């Protein structure tokens, strides 16, 4: 099976304008991008408690690819960017917002996940394990968050772009959205549902992840992994050559001791307790990291060659074939495609089928990605590498990109970092700051800071101490 059909009723992705999918045009960005001189008078970091105007500390960030949301310690959520399909959670009167607005009908949120695909919107786990969603993620809700029926004890959420799955009470998994690829896991390839269905035969789950191409994987007992949905390119990892996929979970072959999962849109990697990793799927550009000549398909996990000390894995979840690993040393290693410098090692090679160290990163504790870019962050600030068409490297330069990590201007003490839609946002001790594409107001700086894009961080209005 190829890419998930985004024309299903729940997604309505065919209605998304081309500019929405790509965040505008690079040509327009060159003429309207904010420059480092504009932000010279304001620098992030150095303040004390981070509070929004309602007195809630910002504890996390999420993106659906066309905007961002901030989770507050009070349990409320504030969002900015496009309101297409109600993604801001404030009702239909607003088309976009360049300042944060409070999601209606939502309280006691504990975590937030953006769909970042055809179903623009968000879902949040709530205190007590309930789930509420808004935007197309909320069944085309345009008037605030709506409760997802029948879920309790939810702890982990993931989206494949046209649906969601959640780990719920008893280690079971409930899924809703499009079932055309078998992604609901209930034995059906045809059902689309706004009401969660239980994934067949799956228990002991602690975490769920998706490749955003119609499949999901769950971490279960003993660090084993089970996957279901679209099987293209060996994505299910069960050792079979079944390209159609499976509407019920399949055990990933020969894998145990896993503690985390990541996807690069063409397969999956599992981080193991030992700090190593094993990957499976379509290795078109070295994305499996095992040193084997690409292209090839591995329908069972292979070891990433030479990787040790990995604490977190992150794939280029949009179009790439590759991963980066955050290391216990505070460094970052990447493998796979080097398009636009995505490996960050300063080299000109087209790809690397083994991990290479990113130049210019040290002391990192956070890792984020946006189409064509990665950023690492920590106490010393943030560094980014890859493309720079919309200023998403945050350096104050209009250079086309960087194959080595370069420091984001003015940031330090970064405690949360997220990317989406050619932009990044970071929580620092003095507020929330965003940089990159701003065509939908997704930098959140308000009218005074509105531009097509900004190559330096802009402070998000109303989310400062």
Written description of the protein model:
This protein has 465 residues and is mainly β. The protein has two helices and 33 strands. It has helices at 18-22, 26-32, and strands at 33-34, 58-63, 67-72, 77-82, 96-102, 109-114, 121-126, 131-135, 141-147, 156-159, 163-167, 173-177, 193-198, 207-210, 215-219, 225-229, 246-251, 258-263, 267-272, 277-283, 296-303, 310-315, 322-327, 332-337, 351-357, 366-370, 373-378, 381-387, 401-407, 416-419, 423-428, 431-437, 453-459. The chain has a five-stranded mixed sheet with strand order 1-33-32-31-30. Strands 2-3-4-5 form a four-stranded antiparallel sheet, with no helix packed on it. The protein has a four-stranded antiparallel sheet with strand order 6-7-8-9, with no helix packed on it. The longest helix has 7 residues, at 26-32.
Computed structural class: mainly beta
Mass-distribution shape: globular
**Count of helix runs:** 2
Strand content: 35-45%
What topology, given as strand order, has the largest sheet?
Answer: 1-33-32-31-30
Are there runs of 5+ residues with pLDDT below 50, and where? 1-51
**Largest sheet, described in full?**
5 strands, mixed
Beta-strand segment tally: 33
Distance between the termini: 49 Å
Q: Give the oligomeric state of the chains in this entry, treating copies of one chain as homo and distinct chains as hetero.
A: single chain
Radius of gyration: 20 Å
